[in-house]
Amino acid sequence: MTIEELPEPRPNQGEVVVRSEAAGICGSEVEGYLGMMANRVPPLIMGHEFAGTVEAIGEGVDESWLGKRVAVNPIIGCGKCPYCTSGRRNQCPDRRLVGVAVPGGFAGYVAVPERCLYEMPAGMDARLGALVEPLANGIHAIRKGSPEWASSAVVIGAGTIGLACMQAALLRGIEKVTVIERHPARRDHALRLGSHEAFGDAEQIRSGVDVVIDAAGTEATRLLAVDLLSPAGTAVFIGMHSDETVLPWRRVIRGNHTIRGVFAYEDADFQRSLDLLAEGRVGIGELKEVLPLDHGPAAFAELATGPTADIKVFLGA
C-alpha cells in the first residue's frame, strides 16, 4: 500500500466530486489488502464507506447538491433495470462498487454518480456518515432474513457488520439477542450497545434459536449457524470470508430450516440507516478520530494481524 499524489478527479456527466471527510476501513478491504479478495485488483484506491462534501458537479446534475454534505451509497447500478428502478441496486446484474471497480474514498476527492448521494442532516458527524454503509447491511439482513415470529437471535461476530445486525435485531423487537465473539473487548462493546448476552463461544447457548446471523463467514461459523437453529429456524449468511462451505443438508431439510443469503442493502435500507444514525438510535459507541491518509498503510498493517478492540478505523484527507 502506498501514498501517491494524483490529479483531482473531474466529474463526468451525471457525476459529482465529493471531498472525502471520513472513510471507514472495512474488513473486506483488509482481506483485499491480504490478497484474499479477487475483485480488488491493484493499483486501486479502496474505500467504500465514506462521507463528505460535494465540491463540484458535472453536466446534468442538480445544482442544489453543490456544497451539501453527503453519505455515499457506493453501489453503482445501471440505473435502468427493474432492480435499480425499484430501489434494489444491490441486485443489479451490472452493478459496480466504488472502491472496487472505480476509485474510492481513501483519497482527498472522489467522483461518484449523483444517484449515489444521500444528504446528511446539518451538523451530522462525517464519521457517522461513513457508518451508514456498513449499518445498512445489518438493517437489510434483519429486514430480509429474520422471520416475523422470531423471539431469539444469535449474531456470530461483533465487528461493525455484526453489531449492525445485532442492533437491527433489537430494533425489530426480538426478545433475546445474543452475540458470539472471541475478542473480549468486542464482547463488552456488544453488551454496551444493547446485546442481552455475549459469549466467547457457543457452549453456553442451547440450540433452538429462531434466527442466526453469521457475520463472520467462515466454514466453522456457517456450520455453527445451522447447529444452533430451532425447527423452522433461519440462518442468515452475510459474512463473505470463505467461498465454499459444506453444510449438513439432511439436517437442514429435516429441520425445515431456511438458508438465506443477504448482500448489501436496498436504497430504503441505506436511507433508514442514515436516519437512525442521525437520530442516535444506532451506532458503534465512541468514535475514533479520523486518521490522516498517510496513516493508512500502518492502519491496514495493524488490522491485518487480526481483530482489534477498535470497531472502526477512519481515514481522511
Could you explain how this protein is built, in words?
The protein is of the alpha/beta class and about 325 residues long. The protein folds into 2 domains: about 15-125 and about 285-315, Quinone Oxidoreductase, Chain A, domain 1, CATH 3.90.180; about 135-260, NAD(P)-binding Rossmann-like Domain (Rossmann fold). It is built from 9 helices and 15 strands. Strands 1, 2, 3, 6, 7, 14 and 15 form a 7-stranded mixed beta sheet that branches. A 6-stranded parallel beta sheet has the order 10-9-8-11-12-13, sandwiched between helices. Strands 4-5 form a two-stranded antiparallel ribbon. Helix 3 packs across helix 4 and helix 3 crosses helix 8. It is globular and about 55 Å long. It starts with 14 loop residues before the first strand and ends with a strand. The mean pLDDT is about 95.
Offer a concise description of the structure.
With 317 residues, the protein is α/β, with parallel strands linked by helices. Helices cover 28% and strands 23% of the residues. Strands 1, 2, 3, 6, 7, 14 and 15 form a 7-stranded mixed beta sheet that branches. It has a 6-stranded parallel beta sheet with strand order 10-9-8-11-12-13, sandwiched between helices.
What is the averaged pLDDT score? 96
Our Rg estimate from Cα atoms comes to: 19 Å
* Residue windows where pLDDT falls under 50 for at least 5 positions: none
Q: Class of the largest domain, according to the CATH hierarchy? A: Alpha Beta
Q: Could you estimate the helical fraction of the residues in percent? A: 25-40%
| Overall shape | globular
CATH topology of the largest domain: Quinone Oxidoreductase, Chain A, domain 1
Major beta sheet, specifics? 7 strands, mixed
The figure for the number of domains is 2
Q: Approximately how much beta-strand content do the residues carry?
A: 15-25%
Helix/strand order? EHEEEHEEEHEHEHEEHEHEHEHE
- CATH homologous superfamily heading of the largest domain: Medium-chain alcohol dehydrogenases, catalytic domain
Return the CATH architecture of the largest domain: Alpha-Beta Complex
Structural class: alpha/beta
Number of strands: 15
Number of helices: 9
Instruction: State the end-to-end distance.
Output: 16 Å
